[in-house]
Design brief:
Elements lengths: L7 E7 L5 H12 L4 E4 L7 E8 L6 H5 L3 E9 L1 E3 L8 E4 L7 H9 L3 E5 L8 E2 L2 E2 H6 L9 E14 L2 E8 L5 H12 L3 E11 L2 E2 L4 E2 H6 L2 H7 L3 H9 L1
Helix pairs in contact: 3-5
Length: 239
C-alpha cells in the first residue's frame, strides 16, 4: 500500500435504497481515506456493481466510466411513471395486451446499435449547473437534448405479463428506465422499470465485489486486499 494511503479500485455490490454517494461515504470511513470517487451513478432502487476509485485510481475515473455496461432488469407493462421507474408517481394506466413473445422481441429490437435517447427529467445531467432531478422535484420540466447511445445485445429472459425480465449490454450514459419506458411506448401500453441490477462495467463483474455489510464490518486490512491495483487494471484493459 502507498505511504500516502490506499490506491486501487474497489468493486461494491450496492444495496437497494442507497445512493451512490451513501456508498462512497461508508467506504471513505471504512478505508480511512478522503481521496475516493465512484464511476457511474446507480439510482437508489438499483443494485449491483458500483466501482469506487481510491487514491491514485481517481486519475483513471473518466477512463473507467467510459466503458460499456451490462444490466439485468425487469420492466412492467401497463403504466408509465414520472421517473420512468417504480419509485415515481403513476402518470397513466393502460390495459396490457396479450402480447406474444415475438411481438415483445420486435419491440426490443427497435433499440439496437446506435440510436438516440432523451434522458429522463429525473437524472443527474446538469442544466446551468443544477442537476435535472432537482428541477424535476420543483415540478420544472425542461427540453432535454437527445443523446446518442448504443446497445450491443439484449436478451429477454422471462415473460410473465405484465412483467418482462431482460439483460442489456449498452454504452455509457444509457438510461435503462428510459429504455423500459420507450419499449412500453412501442407496444402501446406504456411501461416503467421495476427492478435493475448492474452486473458488469467494462471487464469488471460482481465476482470480486464486496457487499455493503462487508464494507461496514470487515477489518480494514481485508478491504485493502480487495482493492484491484492500477497494475492489474492496466493488464485487464490491455487484455
Amino acid at each position: 500500500m502507498d505511504s500516502d494511503g490506499p490506491s486501487g479500485v474497489l468493486l461494491v455490490d450496492k444495496a437497494e435504497e442507497m445512493t451512490s454517494h451513501d456508498v462512497v461515504a461508508i467506504a471513505r470511513r471504512a478505508l480511512n481515506t478522503k481521496k475516493i470517487g465512484h464511476c457511474g451513478t446507480l439510482d437508489p432502487m438499483a443494485t449491483g456493481l458500483l466501482m469506487l476509485v481510491i487514491g491514485k485510481a481517481t486519475k483513471i475515473q473518466d477512463l473507467l466510466m467510459s466503458e460499456d455496461k451490462q444490466y439485468v432488469g425487469t420492466l412492467r407493462l401497463g403504466s408509465t411513471t414520472s421517473t420512468q421507474d417504480r419509485q415515481g408517481e403513476t402518470l397513466d394506466i393502460k390495459e396490457v395486451g396479450n402480447y406474444s413473445a415475438e411481438e415483445i422481441h420486435v419491440a426490443f429490437s427497435q433499440f439496437m446499435g446506435d440510436f438516440e435517447q432523451i434522458p429522463p427529467m429525473v437524472s443527474a445531467i446538469k442544466k446551468d449547473g443544477v442537476p435535472l432531478y432537482k428541477l424535476a422535484r420543483q415540478g420544472i420540466e425542461i427540453v432535454r437534448e437527445p443523446r446518442k447511445v448504443h446497445i450491443t445485445s439484449f436478451e429477454i429472459t422471462r415473460i410473465e405479463l405484465p412483467d418482462i425480465d431482460f439483460v442489456v449490454n449498452c454504452s455509457k450514459g444509457f438510461y435503462v428506465r428510459t429504455y423500459a419506458h420507450d419499449i412500453g411506448a412501442v407496444l402501446g401500453c406504456g411501461a416503467h422499470l421495476s427492478a435493475l441490477r448492474r452486473t458488469r462495467s467494462g471487464k469488471f463483474t460482481l465476482d470480486k465485489s464486496v457487499t455493503i455489510a462487508d464494507l461496514k464490518t470487515s477489518p480494514r486490512e481485508d478491504l485493502y486486499k480487495s482493492l484491484i491495483s492500477l497494475a492489474e487494471i492496466s493488464l485487464m484493459r490491455g487484455a
